[in-house]
Design a protein that fits this description.
The chain has 872 residues and is of the alpha/beta class. It has four domains: 145 residues, Immunoglobulin-like (Sandwich); 214 residues; 160 residues, Alpha-Beta Plaits; 253 residues, Alpha-Beta Barrel (TIM Barrel), CATH 3.20.20.450. 51% of the residues lie in helices and 17% in strands. Helix 22 links the parallel strand 22 and strand 23. Helix 1 packs antiparallel against helix 3 and helix 13 crosses helix 14. The longest helix has 54 residues.
Length: 872
């Protein structure tokens, strides 16, 4: 038990000792006074409220009853009848002697002293009459006796709506006043003790915020009010002129006590059992009903009887809950045992009071004050239990706080460890790219104004070759060796920035296991080639594995950092340079701006391409397809061209793949089809001649579910005969799912258009596609043609390709025809349709019109030859 508990226990037992002492003195005093003036008494019970006193005097002796109880412990239980007590005085009464009724809850008391001479002294008092009517202002009832009338008889009429107790004894006035002072001391000590408990509960509420202690304080306050009211002290102190309120307040305190007792206990033990909880809710509801009905004066008598039984049942119910809770919480047995003891003491005390109320037990100070005694002990045990709980909870909070601090420290340690693992390589512990990006503002500030910084990317080129040759373990060991070499080699090289401030002061970061990045600073206009060659030679030395020396093949890409540029862009450019160095078999390569190879420029091109499509800044170039048999124009191939204001002419092999990646290929294809059909319509209107148009499709177009609908609507809008439209697809566009490609091609053929296999002769499985897919035209790639008259082998292949196309009933078109000899040779093989620079380069619609006007059937340019400025 803590020191606070010890102090509470000492205070409680001290007050309890005072109470016992006062009761002992009272018992001794009462016994002593009654020994001297003891006399037989008789009782008459009258149901007639109109019976006058002279009628009582004339009653026959046989109507009076002799009771076995002593006069100092008379108790009649609950009774609504008037009880007349006749007490003949046996001895001479001393001067200043009083007859005392030692019970404060009596509604009406009429006192009569009949002397031998026939004179009668009458005094009327009781709780139903104002307190100020009493001759002696004490909580009980005291009546002065005429000491000169020896042998007189005392008559007392008692009537009460509650329990009827009439303990009688005689007392001197001085002793009466001293007894009242002792009673006030006793009551004040009790009230002070209960008030101290209430104050303690409020302090704990203020400290902990636990509402259980507030409910406890309300319960103690209700218990204090009920006890003081039962002892007549509130009538004397608070409402001496309102006797009717004295009755109502008793039931108000009783049912308030019951309600808050139930609420407090259920909250304290955290009642969860559904059946018992329902029972407690029913009891609380009944207590509320009783509290409301208490305001009706006519209900005082039945409610008063019910309240005693209700309080007893409530305490027994609380005792059951406390014992059950104590049994279930053996780990906190000390505090819960106090809690159970509190309700055990209270149940015993209330039982004694109830038995006394119903007249089963005699009216003694111990019985009459059992509620007060039990309240003192109950509050002591409850306070001790709650202080124990408060102390336990406080200790638990301290331990939880300490544990929380410990866990927080562990969490910080774990988080720091996890952060290190997340931002550093798992084996070499070199920092990763995120460390460089996070520290870059500070790092960039360390670069002198007359120096420049460059990102140096070291790539382990031979990793996968080592995996295939010696296995994963050896290759990983070489990676770790490379990381260690970088750390050792750059440890004291001040021209490389320290990239990891917080953890290891390293000068390199790991982009992935095969790529390391350094930041090299050097004076502006200083050639760092020698430094980079030294770095490559130092890091690529042989690796010793089981007495074998394996080369660590490296490539180094370098990109210079410009002012206010993001470092991740510079690193990306260094990666591009490293990749190109690998392709060109170079050790070190500086980055140069090359379209299509830089991811950053790819993003720029993608954005510009979308804008060009939206603004209609793309163009079409048309390359003629000529019939070599009669020299007539067969058709044209539509080729998309794009000239950007910043980058100039951008080749299709650069922006078309980008369009395929970012899903711009659909609007791009729609643009080409639309402009090609519009070109046909204008050409036909101007010349009256039909002309075939060929349009390229990509792999993305074949998987577009809206392609057929889009193409059909455009052809119909511009009134182009479908037989004059040819869609060209390359072998790479149909690699993979042949069945899906066949469905797409057949859907297009259903429109009436033609399908051509483009770049025939460049792939490995074109014959398979010719067999499986419904092509109507075959385009021989320019790389397949014969450019050397002595290459008879190539000539035979071309002739075989032409014969293959004719055997399959396909039109054969040869691309890349650059000379008259090549055209004549193809004509000799039976290829009638040719396309190439010999006839014309791709040209704009305007230049095509000029070219067409000067073209004759002898395949010659008539007049001025028109130079075409488009790049191929």
């Amino acid at each position: 038990m803590t020191f606070a508990n010890v102090r509470v226990a000492l205070l409680a037992f001290f007050l309890f000792a005072v109470l016992v002492l006062v009761w002992a003195v009272n018992e001794h005093r009462i016994s002593k006074s009654n020994i001297e003036y003891a006399s037989d008494y008789q009782v008459y019970i009258s149901e007639n409220e109109n019976l006058a006193f002279h009628d009582i005097l004339n009653l026959p002796q046989s109507d009076w009853q002799n009771l076995p109880q002593k006069s100092n412990s008379l108790s009649f239980g609950y009774s609504t009848a008037s009880h007349w007590i006749k007490l003949p005085l046996k001895n001479q009464i001393k001067k200043g002697q009083f007859l005392v009724v030692n019970y404060s809850l009596l509604d009406e008391i009429d006192f009569y002293q009949v002397m031998k001479e026939g004179e009668t002294l009458k005094i009327e008092t009781g709780d139903a009459r104002p307190f100020d009517n009493r001759l002696v202002k004490v909580s009980n009832f005291a009546f002065p006796i005429d000491a000169q009338s020896q042998g007189s008889t005392l008559f007392i009429r008692v009537k009460s709506s509650g329990t009827l107790k009439v303990p009688l004894y005689f007392e001197q006035y001085e002793d009466l006043i001293q007894a009242e002072a002792a009673e006030n001391l006793y009551s004040g000590a009790f009230a002070g003790y209960m008030g101290l408990m209430i104050l303690m509960s409020l302090i704990i509420v203020a400290i902990s915020g636990d509402k259980n202690y507030l409910l406890y304080g309300v319960y103690v306050l209700a218990s204090l009010g009920l006890t003081l009211n039962l002892n007549g002290l509130l009538f004397r102190w608070l409402w001496p002129g309102s006797p009717e309120w004295n009755q109502v307040s008793t039931n108000l305190f009783s049912y308030t006590l019951i309600y808050f007792q139930l609420v407090f206990v259920c909250r304290y033990i955290k009642l969860e059992n559904s059946k018992i909880k329902v029972l407690s809710d029913v009891l609380k509801m009944l207590a509320m009903v009783g509290l409301l009905i208490s305001l009706v004066p006519q209900w005082y008598m039945p409610l008063s009887k019910i309240s005693g039984i209700f309080i007893l049942l409530t305490n027994l119910f609380c005792l059951f809950l406390a014992v059950d809770y104590c049994r279930k919480n053996k780990s906190r047995l000390r505090g819960e045992l106090y809690f159970a003891m509190a309700w055990l003491v209270m149940a015993l005390g209330v039982s004694v009071v109830v038995l006394g109320v119903f007249g089963i037990l005699p009216s003694t100070p111990i019985v009459n004050n059992a509620n007060m005694i039990a309240s003192v002990l109950e509050v002591f045990f409850l306070t001790t239990a709650m202080v124990c709980r408060f102390e336990s909870e406080r200790q638990a909070r301290i331990e939880a706080t300490l544990q929380s601090h410990k866990e927080a420290e562990q969490r910080v340690h774990i988080e720091k460890h996890m952060l290190f693992q997340a931002t550093h390589d798992s084996v070499s512990h070199l920092p990763k790219k995120d460390v460089l990006l996070a520290n870059w503002p500070k790092l960039s500030a360390e670069v002198p104004s007359d120096h420049s910084a460059s990102a140096v990317l070291i790539h382990f080129e031979g990793y996968y070759g080592q995996v295939l040759s010696f296995g994963q373990q050896v290759a990983e060991a070489m990676v770790h060796e490379l990381h260690d070499r970088v750390r050792r080699l750059l440890g004291n090289k001040s021209q490389y920035l320290k990239l990891d401030y917080q953890w290891s002061q390293d000068r390199a970061v790991v982009l992935d296991s095969l790529d390391l990045c350094l930041i090299l600073i050097s004076p502006k206009e200083y050639d760092i080639s020698e430094e980079l060659n030294w770095l490559h030679n130092s890091l690529s030395g042989p690796f010793n594995y089981e007495n074998m020396f394996l080369d660590i093949e490296l490539t180094i890409g370098v990109s210079k950092l410009h002012d206010s540029e993001k470092v991740d862009r510079v690193i990306r450019r260094a990666q591009v340079a490293s990749k190109e160095a690998s392709q060109r078999r170079l050790k070190v390569l500086h980055y140069h701006n090359k379209l299509g190879q830089d991811p950053e420029l790819t993003g720029i091109i993608m954005s510009k391409l979308k804008m060009a499509l939206d603004q209609g800044r793309l163009q079409l170039a048309f390359q003629p397809q000529v019939n070599t048999h009669n020299g007539s124009l067969f058709g044209v191939e539509a080729l998309v061209r794009w000239k950007d204001d910043e980058y100039g002419w951008i080749p299709p092999d650069v922006f078309v793949p980008i369009a395929e990646q970012c899903r711009l290929i659909t609007p791009l294809t729609a643009f080409v089809v639309k402009e090609s059909c519009a070109f046909y319509q204008r050409f036909y209107q101007e010349t009256g001649q039909e002309i075939a148009i060929s349009i390229n499709l990509s792999a993305r177009n074949l998987s577009d579910e809206f392609l057929i609908q889009e193409v059909s609507s455009i052809i119909e809008k511009y009134r182009v005969p479908p037989r004059l439209v040819t869609f060209e697809v390359t072998e790479t566009a149909i690699i993979g799912d042949i069945e899906k490609s066949r469905n797409a091609l057949e859907d297009l053929l259903d429109l009436g258009v033609k399908m051509a296999l483009d770049d025939f002769g460049t792939g490995y499985s074109s014959l398979v596609y010719l067999k499986e897919l419904p092509f109507t035209e075959l385009k021989i790639d320019k790389g397949f043609l014969v450019k050397d008259d002595k290459a008879q082998h190539n000539a035979s292949l071309v002739e075989a390709a032409v014969m293959l196309g004719k055997a399959l009933n396909m039109e054969v078109i040869a691309e890349g025809v650059e000379s008259l000899e090549m055209a004549e040779q193809l004509a000799g093989y039976g290829c009638q349709l040719c396309q190439g620079f010999y006839f014309a380069k791709p040209m704009s619609e305007t230049d095509f019109g000029l070219w067409y006007k000067g073209y004759d059937n002898k395949r010659n340019i008539i007049g001025t030859k028109h130079e075409i400025t488009y790049e191929t």
